[in-house]
Glucose-6-phosphate 1-dehydrogenase (Kangsaoukella pontilimi), 484 residues
Amino acid sequence: MVSRVIPVDPFDLVIFGGTGDLARRKILPGLFRRFLAGQMPPESRVIGAARSEYGDDEYRAEVKAALEEFIAKDSRPAKDVKAFLDRIHYVAIDATGKAGWSDLKKLLRSDVVQAFYFSVAPSLFGPLAERLHEWKCAVKDARIVVEKPFGRDLESARALNRTLGDHFDESQIYRIDHYLGKETVQNLMAVRFGNMLFEPLWNAQYVDHVQITVAETVGVNGRGAYYDKSGAMRDMVQNHLMQLLCLIAMEPPSRFDPDAVRDEKLKVIRALDPVDKNDIVRGQYVSEEDGESYLEQVEDPDSLTESFIAMKLNISNWRWAGVPFYLRTGKKLKARASEIAIVFKDAPHSIFGQELGRHRNILAIRLQPNEGITLGVTIKEPGPGGMRLVDVPLDMTFKDALGPDGDEIPDAYERLIMDVIRGNQTLFMRGDEVEAAWAWTDPLIKGWIERGERPKSYDVGSTGPEDAAVLMHREGRKWRDIKA
Ligand code: NAD
């Protein structure tokens, strides 16, 4: 199947922080792939804006180097790279001063879609918004894109929302959570709301529990100073895992439109119960190798910040009363794997007898690697010798139809950037959503800080602290294996 490319209007996309790590690794390679797919109309331009004193040619050389590093050789024919680079421009700018702003103003056009990607430290969001306004760079419906972290608590998130809101309308602000740009996450909505089959079962009567796992193999190396001030709760749960939970738990929106979807997500966050301290397990990785333990990779040798967290949440509404949602995420775990699993209840009566074991339907939504959705169904094991039951996956990925190795699946960033250009906010977090998520998160963090709680140790390459397993075992449940 050839993926259908929906054209977008011509645009000027300004990347503040265009020389930074995120721009090099994700934004520029993503834009190049969209260019290759024919989604960048000829009049469109990408304008890097950062502190380095580059001219267009020097920046183009940087962009070229980034494409060489992050795009496979046979996916970047020289003539396409050249044509893409022709659309790249650069302005040296100071986000906190005057330098460069009149150059940027001169370069921008008012008759194309304008988007400003704030790929810079959050402390620069305010100064950038102010200067865009002051120098009258942005047209009335210009879009701004902001990266995580969006605040570190409710107060700072509110302050950021206010600062951006002083100069831009909420309809112009795109808060990126790249988990929402993943193909499977959107497929989850298609599966849920495009079929008759699942929605009737999607509630406390049929679902035993839900597991959401985002496991990483990387540690904090190099990012220790930033990470230690944040921890797994702020860095992953408050945003990514919370967004996934919302999509699973929300009521069907009346339409697939930005506010209808985001209204329903917000209701989920507001229906979350406070979490009991006994339902939270925090961890820090340890290793026998020198320099490999968490505490050796951050500045504070007594740090109480968690590199792992597992928790049990309850959603107080009719649909989910009594259905636990188990979340876990951590660094230096056994494999890199992100998955949502909806575990259905046992059949009410087994006509086959207990000796054939317990078989449950599990809908597994895999975000990485190998994005896809499978439904575990129980069938008879083939062959003679009586009735034996076996669980087999019903694959809803249609990978073959999507091209070899799913190559045609656009990366989350490129999809989201194109949504910005289209002016579609459905997959972006609204300000009130972010604030509600912090309002739920803050007291939990405050609680463990006040108690001076030390995270439990877990071995590098394991599935997390033993207590995380106990969180499930004590209720007769078990985490799914973390498999790459
Ligand atoms: P980086 O440090 O690699 O790059 C920062 C960029 O900001 C550079 O281009 C620099 O020139 C520019 N800059 C700094 N001060 C400036 C100023 N006064 N005026 C103009 N430009 C200035 O950072 P990064 O890793 O690319 O991250 C950018 C943002 O994206 C941060 O908010 C980060 O938290 C977020 N983010 C990054 C990643 C990632 O993988 N790198 C992932 C998620 C979110």
Remarks:
- The longest helix spans residues 431-450.
